[in-house]
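For this section, I looked closely at the sequence of one protein beside the tokens encoding its backbone, which the following lines show:
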Amino acid sequence: MSIFRARHDPALPAEGHLPSFGGATEWLNSAPLSPADLRGHVVLVQFWTLTCINWLRTEPYLRAWSQVYRDDGLIVIGVHTPEFSFEHEMERVRQATAQRAIDYPVALDSDYAVWSAFDNHYWPALYFADREGVIRDHHFGEGRYDPSERLIQQLLGIERDLVPIEALGVEAEADWENLRSAETYLGYARGERNGSPEHLRLNQWALTGEWTTGAEKVTLERANGSIVFRFHARDAHLVLSRKALEPIPFRLLLDGDAPGDAHGIDVDENGDGVLDEGRLYQLVRHRDSVRERTLEITFHEPGAEAYVFTFG
């Protein structure tokens, strides 16, 4: 398919021109880029934030598309717009970029200026622009990978087999058929479904010990406080940071016992883990049948800050 036909295909509506990235507070992997700099390239813009499990599960595709189609004229731009206060720190974003082997340009959008210029409302969000800088499509959330890659090829004027993707670890696709638990925030601004520790129903959570509840997080004030959650999913994650100077050890139990083979990446078979930095922690990954279970995470020192549970 020719580039000319891709530009004027009536099935690809014009959704406006690429807005300016001028509001970015910093750039990684690139000098600052403007729509004029990008003219002549197909551009894929992705909004992300480093603790978002939905973004993490899309990243293997973005990484692969950037590498495979770069010589054909594709430029992928990540826009990191932070959800939580600790995600504003540039060094954390730099570290997350290195950990995910992201080598395409990343604009740091700490003031939400680029987010507002795109009138965006979601993590992750994809915007596809043609070589003239016209946005031809968008997609919010996970999924739709094959049509998105076909669209990239159409805008580039090429036709090939789709890139094989192997997503591992926390980036692995969710077990959608067994997913019965949804994203759950713990701070009072968006907190919901909390209950009694002794009588939790599915998707309820509770605190034990001395905690302070803030708008975006709960903070442990005294050692050995716990969070309990009744869930149904293959994977369970928790976004954590710490106000303590030193790393905080924690212990995870599933239905009152060590997790064994169901431990996540950030926990061993005995349930032991360490809160060492602000990020998403994978607590549970079932390797056999998925069923309703109760997790309890206990922090052995004060200063733990917990934001949101996510599942997969």
User: Anything to note?
Assistant: The helical segments are 3-8, 35-38, 53-69, 90-99, 113-117, 145-156. The first strand starts at residue 26 and ends at 28. The chain has two domains: 3-171, 178-311.
